[in-house]
Amino acid sequence: MSMRRPVLLLGGTEEARHLQREMLAAGHEVVLSLAGRTRSARQSGARVGGFGGVIPMANAIRRGGFCVLIDATHPFAAIISPNAKRAARMASVPYLRLERPAWTAQEGDHWQNVVSLADAAAAIPPSTRAFLTVGAGGIAPFVQRRDVQFVVRAIEPPHLAGRSDVKVIRARGPFATADERALFQNEAITVLVTKNAGGTATRAKLAAARELGVNVIMIARPPGQPRADAPSVHAMLCLLRQRISLA
Ligand code: NAP
Question: Any alpha helices (H) in 78-202, and if so which ranges?
């Protein structure tokens, strides 16, 4: 691969931003691509918005003269990664996936593993106060549970389908364990619902839940995703040094 050709980096994660910074610092041309779900994405200077599917993405790769497609999208972004792998193959460029490892339960954890947002919503015991951290776009199945009180934390405002009793906290990680513990206590949280996002920025809530004996409903990652080539920014940079002579 030529080091003179730009890299297309699919983002939407902290890792993607970190990788972009490191690659730019190494003198490489990088085009960061974001879906545009958040205000910060729309103001980021990245290329923003969907490609329109596999074939348009392959055409964009060819048109841009990219030497590699790096997929650093979120583990729960289920459509873009398989599409990206197919588009890279069509455009005859390598596809490299950066995906942080999933969290695993530790001693003292009380996790109930489920496979979907709908299953998570159904698994919440009645008359509980649940802390919901599944992203603003994942709220719909939960707000139908009128027998559960919700505290929702999300970066963007969630659609609450007319539920005026839901408390919303707008925030973006990283979060500290002491703050998470205080939040659980102040809000009298009895159950935590989360996607198994992995990484360090939002894992403090799991430590707080462990300390306080709060039950966790853990939503597994979507099946059928391309396998990870690197579990971290550091590992991806090592791989890129081998593959595209990154300084
Ligand atoms: P998704 O279901 O996999 O993707 C839906 C569509 O959004 C894709 O088909 C694609 O549109 C477009 N898209 C997604 N990521 C893109 C990117 N990096 N650049 C350009 N277009 C992109 O993804 P999602 O779950 O809606 O997530 C959207 C973005 O938010 C992702 O980039 C992801 O990294 C980030 N994110 C997601 C989550 C989550 O829990 N799902 C959490 C944090 C961050 P076209 O088909 O038109 O190309």
Answer: 80-91, 117-123, 140-143, 177-186
